[in-house]
Amino acid sequence: MPYKILKKEVLAPRIKLMEIEAPYVARAARPGQFIVLRIHEQGERIPITIGKADKERGTLTIAFQEVGKTTYHLGTLEAGDELLDVVGPLGKPSEIDNFGTVVAVGGGIGVPLLYPIVKALKEAGNRIIMIEGARSAELLVLEDWFRPLVDELRITTDDGSRGRKGFVSDELRDILESGEKVDRVIAVGPAIMMKVVSELTRPYGIPTIVSLNSIMVDGTGMCGACRVEVDGKTMFACVDGPEMDGHKVDFDLLMKRLDAYKALEKESLDLFLKTKEIRNA
Ligand code: FAD
Ligand code: FES
Ligand code: MG
What we know:
With 281 residues, the chain is α/β, with parallel strands linked by helices. 30% of the residues lie in helices and 31% in strands. It is built from nine helices and 17 strands. The strands form four sheets. The chain has a seven-stranded mixed β-sheet with strand order 12-11-10-9-13-14-17, sandwiched between helices. It has a five-stranded antiparallel β-sheet with strand order 5-6-2-1-7. Helix 5 runs parallel beside helix 6 (191-201). It starts with a strand and ends with a helix. The structure holds flavin-adenine dinucleotide (FAD), FE2/S2 (inorganic) cluster and magnesium ion. Flavin-adenine dinucleotide is lined by residues 34, 46-49, 62-65, 67-71, 109, 112-113, 213-216, 242, 258, 262, 265, 269.
């Protein structure tokens, strides 16, 4: 069954949003879950988070950053085009409860994943402080999704073009040092950001959940591509996660594994960009 793209929006340079028709996935999706999609028969499979799932319309909304061949290719598709496969919902859903005060930390393209989690946590009665960070103001996305939902929205940019100049972790450090009672932290974004956040909360003993972005192929626990070390044990981020206890993840190993195919990925993107005009002609 082909999966039609119903809407496409450019959110920021190299960051796009798409609404995709996928009624079965939309009906079953829960916060924290993701899909694995394939554009065409020869295309690779990539995992993307379910940002919003509209059960009535039977659609999923995703947001993605163009970082390599497949995401660049996805970004060339328009409303009316179709994807070959959308498999999901995959991964364990997020743990939702009334924890008290939750700080949700989103960096870069980790932000869409936080939306369904923050929404469910708010509905469960939590007070939510959200910290959203990006390299610069133009890369801050989906603020309009979060603004009506959270109790406080704090913005940081690396270059100071909006909000506080610095990293999301600087803002989190201030909250922790202010003595404010924080019952849980959820961090989604680049591995290095999740590592720093987990190190910050460790001395306070605040449960810290991270969503691991390891390389995934099948997304169903069969291939082993997504293996990570958590508490000294090998786990598969696709089926045991993607959410894990940030205090127990071996982030250095995760980062090493994420970089394992850099040279091949660059070659593949260069080739794609060279042939793109031909393909789009
Ligand atoms: P490539 O040039 O192939 O790779 C660029 C970098 O992306 C690599 O160095 C590697 O670190 C990573 N990567 C490559 N292939 C994969 C793969 N198969 N699986 C995971 N990472 C890979 N990105 C978004 O923009 N939006 C999302 O909502 C989103 N959700 C994700 C949810 C999960 C559970 C995971 C694991 C990843 C998610 N990602 C998301 C990351 C996204 O899957 C990668 O950016 C994408 O696969 C890169 O593919 P590429 O061919 O464009 O880039
Ligand atoms: Fe294959 Fe997790 S992606 S085992
Ligand atoms: Mg790729």
